[in-house]
Amino acid sequence: MAKKTQNTRAKQIAAVGISAAVAAALAGCGSGRTDEGGSGAGLVVGTTDKIFSLDPAAAYDNGSLLVENQIYSYLLNFAPGDTTPAPDAAEKCAFTAPTVYTCTIKPGLKFANGNPLTAKSVKFSFDRMVSINDANGPASLLGNLDKTDLVDDLTVAFTLKVANDQTFPAVLPTQAGPIVDEKVFPADRVATDEEVVAAKGYSGPYTIASYDKNKLVEYQANGDYQGILGTPKNTKVSTKYYATSDNLKLDLQKGAIDVGYRSFTPTDIDSLRADSKVKVTDGPGGELRYIVFNLNTMPGETPEQKLAVRKAIASSVDREALATGVYKGTFQPAYGFVPAGMAGAAEPLKDIYGAKPDKAAAAKFLADAGVATPVTLNLQYNPDHYGSSSSEEYAAVKSQLEASGLFKVNLQSTEWVTYQKERATDGYPLYQLGWFPDFPDADNYLTPFFAPNNFLQSHFENPGISAQLTAEATEADPAKRVEILKKVQTDLAQNFLPTLPLLSGKQVAVSTPGVSGVDETLDGSFKFRFTVLSK
């Protein structure tokens, strides 16, 4: 499969979300504490998320995002507790024409290595992101960006392909937006983690003091940072990586680490809520778990038969059983493409296919299209990226589908690094993905999935859906925009069904006594910031 290109999305508003990740990593030895340095030092965060890359051009996952949030600055970012983009490295940003968004950068900024951060750095960062267009990176977020021009030493102008883009300001704080040093980052390739650590071509609130990938990363406060995240409350923070949530939970209960963030099993969370030695903090929802259909390789001889198979699957799964039986209520059934509670959310899958399995409806879809049963489904899932409950979840999905008598499911699992590569090269006819949004807007659950050249690379494209996505993303009237958002979801559910939403969930973090600030960072921006944490 060819790499993603940006010009195929000229009619679309860019908003591609994070391939949601709850990744298991290699466990480090010892507690990982760095308590030297006196008051305010040595806070330790534990996680099972895996770092894919420190180079923003190749980083499109939550494990990498956790690091990016600490070491990179952005033109605009989200202040803790807020979901409105505000100046970070920028002094101000505004539309200066319907297709031109202009940002003025704060004077005197510099990278952690001492090099100046100027408008040239910003232009380089965005040009590089689009040019490299790494298959595992977030370049598709910039699908509506036509070009980036230097106005002067402190000013850049983004020319957009589609006017009145309501989402572009919110794209700037995403994984497509970190500003990198043009003097140390290669323009035409992805930098290795070792190169990023050594060159210090970043300018966020922290620098990396030591780096043992997916084992232990130690951070030191960056005194030159002048952005919206403020002065770090802890001068030193470490991130310790765990292979499983079992050890993460154990270290929290022993007080060996201070905060655990992603990903605990439902059983872990139930247990930790009852443990007086720790505090469980819930943040706004937004996570979506779903099945992707590769429209080229999934079962069915014709597009009509393939659609019938998708509809029959939609009529056979029991989301409520997954939410309660597997996830013990930590997830909720998802009957729409946008999670409930967000402006524009709808539940067309419940209306069309029902809240409970309907074998008769599923059989009719297949019979009407001339599909012989049982249909063999090769369904792939990932055991180390979306939490250990994925195995139980997909075993349940297999059981539900086969209980209808209409399907024979070959269930296979692959670890994340291989999974990412194989799914992007038509390796899987049906496969699991999860999603955390780049920014809190319904469009971020639609355009990334269903626009031409979508990040799923599922081969779905439809001019009518594309037109509706453009219409919602450029509609300034909130009420009219909600109407369009609901209509496009109904159209997708009834006539196309390129993905099958299953579950939606919320953010959860666990901390030990004396730690504060966790609630400040668990907000609708879905960015976990170390700057607000203290003990």
TrEMBL record:
Residues 86-454 form the Solute-binding protein family domain. Keywords: Signal, Transport. The keyword Signal applies. It comes from the Bacteria. This is ABC transporter substrate-binding protein. Residues 1-27 form the signal peptide. It holds the Pfam family SBP_bac_5. It is found in: Cell envelope. PANTHER family: PERIPLASMIC BINDING COMPONENT OF ABC TRANSPORTER (PTHR30290), PERIPLASMIC OLIGOPEPTIDE-BINDING PROTEIN-RELATED (PTHR30290:SF10). Coiled coil: none annotated. Belongs to the bacterial solute-binding protein 5 family.
